[in-house]
User: Fold these one by one.
Assistant:
Number 1:
Amino acid sequence: MAYLNRNNFGKFWPIARKGSKYVARSSHNLGESIPLMIVMRDILKLVRTKKELKKLINEKQIKINGKLIQVVNYPICLFDVLSLEVMKKNYKMVLLESKKFGFEEIADKDAKSRVYKVLDKKILSKGVVQLNLNSGKNVLSKEKVGIGDGIVLDFSGKILGVVKLDKGSNAVVIEGKHAGNKGKIEHVFERGGKKLVKIKLNDGSKVKKDSGESVNVWVKNVMVE
């Protein structure tokens, strides 16, 4: 089915609950994405109709993470990079303090790669390790990478760098009551069998105003960048 009942779209979608009965549905990754149609028309307001979006797609003007897009409801997930060739614009999907997805315009130089979280790893032959990443992606590596670390990949799949889950790294909370908040990791520790990080929140954070300088967050709910 190409549509969702408006009452059933993700709580992280930044569009009104009231409106037409049905909205576009992502072609896959339904639970963690917003379809391209909604992003282009209702959020970024760069097209007015499905026909206008199809025209851009047919002219090969739209890429997500460097891949040419051919369907109007292609899913866009957290930290994906949307590039619009004819408009000379690039956007990264981010998570706002409101716990809604938003889009941050970025420069061309920052639109050639994206960060992924290492969820698991498996040792293969000859010291090669398979890293299992968020968004369902896997990559082979000989880098020293831990679970919870971030890796920066270009859109050919080459590893450009590793961001350690450690003191001094920038982090964003992606789930839980502090979702959308950003800051710098002060400390990684264990409590009650869970691994947590203490994050010093950035200036301007609503949570910082309400709860103080730092928050403790379960590692599962954090991504370094």
Number 2:
Amino acid sequence: MSSHQCCLRGSLNIKADATDSALANALAPFLEAWGLDFDKELISGAIEILDDRHQLNLSLEFEGRGGGYVNIEIEETVGRLGHLVEGHGYVEMIDYDTAATENMITPFFVGAELRERNRARIQYAIDQATPWLESALDATAVHQIREHTASFTPLAEPVVSHPAGSPRAPEPKVPDEDALTNATGLTLEQLNLMATEAGLPGTVLDDIYNPEGDGEHPVITRVMWRKAVARQDTVSGYWDWTAHQIAEATAPALR
């Protein structure tokens, strides 16, 4: 697989007490993966810390797999930055070499909690829509749309909804110990846990096990996911892949 010329860019408002060492630690997964040095990138201006405005600016060039693929190091870095930002924000990965327009820009939403990450999603949507709105509406109307959209309170918890009139999913069955533990290599306790999670999307698992940004599922670990990525068995993010693995492992128990 050929590498693509990429750039991780964005501006984040950071907390007043966020130190350079804390920011270096947050950026470490990304920098180390691509052989970049925090101090050198700081000197070059690719990393810019504006102490007077409590702002972090990034424009980090690297060669990677590009958009449309899992970016483990960026996801880990964004998770760490979530605890250093003031409120919320977003960064973008730009893939200069992709032929697929939808993969050219990949946003990553930054925030310590789901509500703040959802605020970042709203901000990103508004920022993307504004140039189009400005060509069709006057400045006052555009401002009103931005203010009105930003006034909504984002979700603080994941929502698992069922279409109107659809039956609720049945309670998960307790798997048979002898048949399933031998087939899956998992313990009955692990299978029982996963049976209660079958059908949950990755976003829900993320919020259950990853409130601080560095968590993982107690059975389906990040090490397992990284090995799957290295084998090119998946291009999904960790939590979506975990949801799929849970569904596969518990399928016999729910039949």
